[in-house]
Amino acid sequence: MSALLEIKNLHVSVGETEILKGLNLSISAGEVHAIMGPNGSGKSTLSYVLAGRDGYEITQGDILLNGVSLAEMNPEDRAIAGLFLAFQYPLEIPGVTNMTFLKTSVNAVRRGRGEDEMDAASFLRFVRDKAKALRLDDDMLKRPLNVGFSGGEKKRNEILQMSVLEPTMAILDETDSGLDIDALKTVAEGVSAMRDAQRGMLVITHYQRLLDYIKPDIVHILAGGQIVKTGSPELALELEKSGYADYIGEVVA
Amino acid sequence: MSQAKETIEKETVDKVQSLAGEKYKYGFSTDIDSEKAPKGLNEDIIRFISAKKEEPEWLLEWRLDAFERWLTMSEPDWAMVNYPQIDYQDLYYYSAPKSMDDRPESLDEVDPELLRTYEKLGIPLFEQEVLAGVKNRVAVDAVFDSVSVATTFKEELAAAGVIFCSFSEAVKDHPDLVKKYLGTVVPKSDNYFTALNSAVFSDGSFVYIPPNTRCPMELSTYFRINEPNTGQFERTLLIADKGSYVSYLEGCTAPMRDENQLHAAVVELVALEDAEIKYSTVQNWYPGDEEGRGGIYNFVTKRGDCRENNAKISWTQVETGSAVTWKYPSCILRGDNTVGEFYSIAIGNNHQQIDSGTKMIHLGKNTSSRIISKGISAGKSSNAYRGQVSVHRKADKARNFTQCDSLLIGDTCSAHTVPYIETKNPSAILEHEATTSKISDDQLFYCQQRGLDAEEAVSLIVNGFCKDVLQHLPMEFAVEAQKLVGISLEGSVG
Ligand SMILES: Nc1ncnc2c1ncn2[C@@H]1O[C@H](COP(=O)(O)OP(=O)(O)OP(=O)(O)O)[C@@H](O)[C@H]1O
Ligand SMILES: [Mg+2]
Fold it and tell me: If both were cysteines, with which of A10, A47, A209, B285 could A61 make a disulfide (CB 3.0 to 4.6 Å apart)?
């Protein structure tokens, strides 16, 4: 069976600088992979290039989602194809309520897939239930998107968007950073609840804590723009003890 | 070979034209026989207009006086707008569908071609349709070039004592009211364009709300310019007598034409003791094409007079159309405890030029004013907010709050803020806040990652930016205005 997400020999440059240098990664439906790696190793770059952000140029290699190349697709079509990115730094949109944003987003995606838009009443119920599960106050749905949200609220809100959009491939970029202990647990539960045989997840994190809850199938170490080690969840525990020193040397220049 | 090439070229041209047509969906013109005054402007033309309307002698004198003053004045040049010299002798000053000559008594007698025009524009002229269509009823006065085509719900309004008719009718049926109030808020020679309008104004709406009456429905006037090379000079006069309330909306569209067209209107509002007027505008005149060809010159003077104590006037405007806009809806806060408000969204795209804002003139005691201006610039447009807050010597405890925000899309447009604040009374409390922001690539990317295309994303972000103003529009028009905000920015990104 072919993988849900297949990244082959991916080279990515921002301007003149090459940041990803031949990255390979394959995630099958139903799997949760974690990526760990030192600051500046290219984790967010990977997430951005998967989502199709401008300025991140693929100079070599390819990205396939369900066997279809994403390289030439614009960001919204990737979203419609089922890709979701929980941002490390979610953006603020003044004057647009969280609820309006969610609705616009869900309807845009549904329209893109040739599905009917959801009617207002059932959408409201649907979102309220999801928000409740993430312990997000109803009040947060009425506030302008991410404006004045605390760091932790922003991250929880990203997970709310994910659970409402129900993507087939979700990438979470440091969703655990900035969360207090209880929020971390709530978010981890939210993520775990979305584990599904049809869905793939790529969780970028610096900390074992999140992985204690989420329990990934596979852990990768990204250093110097490449995956330098792939292993079982124990790999994360090992890192917690001895850091990245052993791996940084392994990067081919 | 060459024939195939020609076909392809033609198809491309057609395709592009049809796409352009979608952007400004009101761009069609109506093929109708019109009666026009000869080109040019002189006393005879003014006599012709006045005679056409069977006006009383005093009004003709009033017009001629305005014309005399106009001849001595010159076009204002202080606004941040640039356009070629207008040849005032190369315009038609009066144009009316011939069929309107017979003065149709009811809609059944109105030329079907005219009715179809309003149908296409989505303006309900048949009262039954209005009843069936929406919950809240709106009475419409439809002005086509120089004449009013129809006014709906007149009888029902009359039962409440409300007068809502075309200006020409008001001159005939309510001359005392017209004479008493005409030109008392905007003097004939206030500026070059008001003098011109006073000389040649054709039609417009007249509203009178009697004392202690809440107007039973929204009133609206729908202005349509159709004839080429014709100026539109409408005049609106609205009087809210003591303790009354009215909400009024005007909408404007015009066909797409390569040449520019002049629109110089005057709106006068009078609010007596304890009265409140809410005046909303959705201005969507043809803005010209991507290269800046064509479009309306919108040179408008709007002013409201809170003439007696506790009166309130609130202006809300959504300005998305016109090639050049020169417009400053203002409030004179004459009575004590009077309130003036100005809520504005002004959107410029392509080559549009906007110089718009307001004046709040505090004369009475405890007067307060509030200005919320949202300027959005995209393409190669330029967008200036020009606002004046002036507090006179006797205006104790005057208050003003001004919030003036500019949003830039792309880096070929410009935004300017020109506030004038003057106070001769030390008890005044005046606050002014201004911000300028850009839609960031990060915001766009974030929205796109959530499935919105770039244009939807811009429309969402801009609507968010305008929210404080949009919420002041009557419900019936808020949704339409939101869509318009999105449409007018099409092609501004990507
Ligand atoms: N737009 C850009 N222009 C120049 N350099 C960039 C740009 N974006 C990223 N980089 C560089 O690419 C490298 C990888 O950055 P990236 O954000 O992907 O790291 P990361 O692994 O997510 O780090 P962290 O753990 O701190 O979030 C860094 O050295 C960064 O400075
Ligand atoms: Mg990062």
Answer: A10
What is the value of ipTM here, to two decimals?
Answer: 0.95
Residue B354 CA to residue B328 CA, distance in Å, equals 11
pTM for the whole thing?
Answer: 0.85
- In chain A, the number of structural domains is 1
Mutate to test the pocket of ligand 1, among A20, A36, A45, A174 (most ligand atoms within 8 A of CB): A45
Tell me whether A194 touches chain B (CB under 8 Å): no
Give the Cα separation of A164 and B451 in Å (integer).
13
Does A177 map to a domain?
yes
- A203: Cα separation from own chain's centroid: 6
Residue from the list B452, B460, B468 with its beta carbon closest to the beta carbon of A76: B452
Q: Does A249 fall in a domain? A: no
Three-state SS annotation for B357-389:
EEEEEECCCCCEEEEEEEEEECCCCEEEEEEEE
Cβ contacts of A78 on chain B, cutoff 8 Å? 449
* A160 membership: H or E segment, kind and range: helix A151-165
Residue B399 domain flag: no
- Residue B490, domain member (yes or no): no
Q: What is the pLDDT of residues A40-98, one digit of tens each?
A: 999 999 999 999 999 999 999 999 999 999 999 999 999 999 999 999 999 999 999 99
Interface probe, candidates B405, B439, B450, chain A, greatest A C-beta count within 10 A: B450
- Does any domain span residue A205? yes
Q: Are B369 and B387 in contact (CB under 8 A)?
A: no
Note whether B464 contacts A75, CB cutoff 8 Å. Answer: no
- Residue range(s) defining the domain that contains residue B282: 45-327
| Contacting residues of A for B441, CB less than 8 Å apart | 54
- Residue A37: its pLDDT value, please? 93
Does ligand 1 have an atom closer than 6 angstroms to the CB of A96?
A: no
Contact between chains at A95 and B466 (C-beta distance less than 8 A): yes
Nearest CA in chain B to A94: B464
Residue A33 lies in a domain: yes
CATH number of the CATH domain containing A57: 3.40.50.300
Q: Which atom of ligand 1 is closest in space to residue A47's alpha carbon?
A: 18
What is the total count of domains within chain B?
A: 1
> Ligand 1 within 6 A of A205 CB?
no
| Cβ–Cβ under 8 Å, residues B407 and B437 | yes
Q: How far is A101 from chain B (nearest CA, A)?
A: 8
* Domain-embedded: residue B76: yes
**In this predicted model, what pLDDT tens digit does every residue of B144-203 receive, in sequence order?**
776 776 777 888 899 999 999 989 999 999 999 999 999 999 999 999 999 999 999 988
Whether the CB of B277 is below 8 Å from some CB of chain A: the reply is: no
In-domain check, residue B353: no
Return the structure tokens found at B176: 């005392």
Domain interval for residue A213: 5-242
What is the mean predicted confidence (pLDDT) over A26-33? 96
Dump strand ranges (E) for B295-413.
295-306, 312-319, 324-327, 330-333, 339-348, 353-362, 368-377, 382-391, 399-408
Min Cα–Cα distance to chain B from A125, Å: 20
Closest atom of ligand 1 to A45 CA is: 18
